[in-house]
Fold each of these.
Amino acid sequence: MFWHLDRITNIGCRTPEQIKRSYKPRIFERSASVLNMIRQIVGNFSWQKFVGSFLKNHQLATVVPRNLYIELEQVTARSELFPKNISIEKIMNSWMMNNRVPELTVERRYNDNTINITQTQMDRDISAEGYFLWKMYKLGRLRDPNQTWIIPYNYAQESDANFDGVGPIHWLAEPSTVIPTNATSNQWILLSKRHSGLYRINYDEQNWKLLARALQSNISCMPRENRAQLLSDAFYFHEKGQLNKSVLFELLTFLSHETESLVWQS
């Protein structure tokens, strides 16, 4: 999964240097990550149908992103994969027009069996390129850096640890939401089955420990994609000072049984 802060669409290109920034390899890599996230939502069959239809209807023609979104809406019109009150164009623009990726904070309320999910931005990029984007915002050429994403998410829990598909898909369009769960206080929950979302996830300390202990007792209780995600996110939030070192070390103990290279490379 690709984590760089660059935005996919660069608004306000006025000089050769600004245009050059729009064609960095990491821009294309992040674009592919966003499209792959959508592919996992719609499924391979519908995705292939969408790509085939788009190429056929627009062959030898000049296209803009809106053409892509309209085609995707037509292919998925009868499904309930996307929210009814939000267009695919609006969903995609929330990912295309921002130079960061979101972080989700997942805090369980163990006394009433609910989960509070909050989205925030990754830390501001303080590089020269980040300063350029900040200046563009101040000039009114970029969207508000405090904007929210329209985030697809799913989750598994210990009482129903089904990772065969990415559904059902839920959508977070507000800064935060509260959802119910029937997981007990000694059962783990996990967002982004098979690491299907382009975002970081930080859990409350108790849930981190439950995930760590589950992997210690049975490493195959979660697929390798999620084990890799957990490691990557744990190191990331520890470096930010948002995850206790003891929790990180407890999670690392499952590596004594890990044989998948994907996890070790994370």
Amino acid sequence: MSTSSVPSSHFDALDAPHRDLSQARTWFFLLHAVLMIVTFLGIFAFGILFGRFGRTFLPRSWFPYHRAIQITGVASMAIAAILGIIAVQIAGAKHFALLHQKLGLAVIILVLLQAAGGQIGHVIRQRHGHRAQNAFHVALGLTIFGLAAYNVQLGLDLWGWKPAPVWKTVLGVWSILLAVVYVGGLTLVPAQRQQELDQAMGGEREPLLR
């Protein structure tokens, strides 16, 4: 999203003044940006990869770690969202007027649904052995990651500092690298399925709520 697509009234409120480090709102914007980047391209990404590889290498213990990582991400996301809302309020601009803000809100809602669905899906699988909900959980998680990575790019466009293009490139490459690593992890699915089959044939079951 280029700065030319930002409404002038909104741009006046968020442009040059918010890049003044002597103003409180600048720090709120900056902290919001940094924390959201760390949350989605760091914490959540690590949780996704841990879930993908943990299913194969830690078949009996991956879930509680995956859940703990993602819960940490939810808490971090909530703090970052509050910082963003405060920054916009201090700037005197409209809330959820830009694509970045609207998409951010949508991503937050999807993350909360994903968190609840992940736990419910785990219980369903342990009690009834159904896998369909797990496939949906994975697909939604990857969708959220893609939307969040794109929204990071939109946010950097809004920030407008000269280093922004550099960070856009760095974070864009990082996002692609994470996606490549995840896709590479899909090659482990056959081994994971075989492990699960062996456990089932041996009468092994994981604890219901680990």
